[in-house]
Amino acid sequence: MGKDFIHLSNISKSFDGQMILDELDLKIKENEFMTLLGPSGCGKTTTLRLLGGFETPDEGKIFFDGKDITHLPPNERKLNTVFQKYALFTHMSIAENIAFGLKISKKSKAYIDDKIKYALKLVNLDGYENRSVDSLSGGQQQRIAIARAIVNEPKVLLLDEPLGALDLKLRQDMQYELIRLKEELGITFVYVTHDQEEALTMSDKIVVMNQGYIQQIGSPEDIYNEPINAFVADFIGESNIIDGVMIEDKLVEILGTKIPCVDIGFDKNQPVDVVIRPEDVKLVDPSAGFMEGDVVSIIFKGVHYEIEVHANGYDWLVHTTKMHPVGSHVGINVTPFNIQIMNKPESSDEKAVELDV
Amino acid sequence: MVKKIGSRIYLSIIFLFLYLPILVLIVLSFNNSKTRVKWGGFTLKWYASLLENETIIEAFVMTLQITLTASILATIIGTLAAIGIHAMKSKGKAIMLGATNIPLLNADIVTGISMMLLFVRFTELGFSTVLIAHLTFDIPYVILNVLPKLNQTSKYAYEAALDLGATPLYAFYKIVWPDIRPGVFSGFLMAVTMSLDDFSITYFTKGAGVNTLSTMIYTELRKGIKPEMYALSTILFGIALILLLVMNYRSSKKAIN
């Protein structure tokens, strides 16, 4: 990975007295696929619009390649945006749409024609030059929007939930397409989405945001396996989040049972949140687990069964490939490595964050 | 059957009331007889004598000058105002829209008299006061025609243009303008019709030397009804009709597209 390329330094922004971003500090590296992930209203789109130049921060500065661009208008920034609603120019042909930025930068006719061909090939829409915007499907329009942005050879491409309006299959195809594009172009992608699966699939780095704060920054693996708090754990995939008490290093008590874990450094008898991923829960013989319970429901999900087990007053969510009929008595076991211990939220603000989800 | 005939008759009566007076006027303008009660054969002499009458020609030229100047200026100011209002937040927008609607709803005679009172305090009544008065009632029509078009435009398309390196002015010209152009044009046509046939406001703000066709017809009629006035009124009606047809043609063409 290259050097820090963009730096959002202590950015605060509110709309009509409502705080959207609060002292956000974020660095984006060169050639990185960075995803801003969070529920709606978390400030991810505002962050992107600040980068694009469509909003100005109330406080803080934005640096681009070492230069302060906080107050630079959008047309003078060396980055391009792919908008959520595509925002194609409906009264122009596809070729004219793609040529728009190139004409402004006064490129030669031959260069523009070449670029249009190249861009259409890149997004797998060769020969669409003279089609009208209305004649394209949503997925095709989105590809054109991407083509229109990348012909200008921006150093950074901003994408605002570009796949939000597409159906599942198309969305998955486009995800691979975007990864391929990023590899081929070798530029920085800043991607905004509320879809955790999309974020995990495509990103080099994920920034999980909530209510204007960054919750966690890390690789998809880090975010998924080592969520820093209950919000991240819950937002990224499904989780069993259980109140617990840290008895001593490497021993935690949940639901009246002491179980071994690998975490150290907590205070004695400190209340904690214990996160266990449903696929990490092993259903074993009643005697072999640390806890016994009964299967309450089972749903076939294709790849796995989604099973709910009622044990010690808690409904455990379990993903397993083995069938356990409703009513069967099972034991619950989790390897210590897969038990994630997290600090309880300290402020009421953080608590509110949790309740929101 | 009875219902059908009934509705036909009802419709005929409505059209009769609406258009008979105008029809009578038009017929009389071609009547080769000085009295209104007798048909003396077809003639164009009243139209010919219109052209020889210098005061009428003067008034016609004055009307054109005021109408076109007021409509063009109102179109520019009104379009800019609509863009400004469109960019406002909802509260300011509601206040501004209310304010622009007042001149539309206010009785012409009240607007006319109040403007006269204001103008005489500062300046002589004349061409410029009539022009200002016309601007005040033309601008709201332009705003009302342009705003709905602006509401249909996509904010993101404009932002995308900026994003691709366009200056705000270029982005407006390339992206927003094609979308609102029909609204601007119909606003202009509305302003023309409003200015062309306005009487009350012009009458109070025009001063001694200035006469438009409508105020002149009024003064002439007070002296006695001359057949030339039928001809002149017919011409005014004709212009209004043509403008109406142009507007309808444009909107029906749009609907087909």
Q: What is the CATH topology descriptor of the largest domain in chain A?
A: Rossmann fold
Q: What is the strand content of chain B?
A: under 5%
Task: Tell me the CATH superfamily of the largest domain in chain B.
Answer: MetI-like
Give the CATH topology of the largest domain in chain B.
MetI-like fold
Q: Which pair of protein chains has the largest interface, and what are the residue counts?
A: A-B, 26 and 19 residues
Q: Could you characterize what this model shows?
A:
The complex is a heterodimer of chains A (357) and B (257). By secondary structure, chain A is α+β, with helices and mostly antiparallel strands. Chain A folds into two domains: 4-225, P-loop containing nucleotide triphosphate hydrolases (Rossmann fold, 3-Layer(aba) Sandwich), CATH 3.40.50; 241-343, Nucleic acid-binding proteins (OB fold (Dihydrolipoamide Acetyltransferase, E2P), Beta Barrel). Helices cover 26% and strands 35% of the residues of chain A. Chain A has nine helices and 20 strands. In chain A, the strands form four sheets. Chain A has a six-stranded mixed sheet, with helices on both faces. In chain A, strands 13-12-11-14-20 form a five-stranded antiparallel sheet. Chain A has a five-stranded antiparallel sheet with strand order 15-19-16-17-18, with no helix packed on it. Chain B has 257 residues and is mostly helical. Chain B folds into two domains: 1-43; 54-256, MetI-like (MetI-like fold, Orthogonal Bundle). Helix content of chain B is 82%, strand content 0%. Chain B is built from eleven helices and no strands. In chain B, helix 2 crosses helix 11 (227-256) and helix 4 (90-105) packs across helix 6 (127-152). The two termini of chain B are 38 Å apart. The mean pLDDT of chain B is 88.
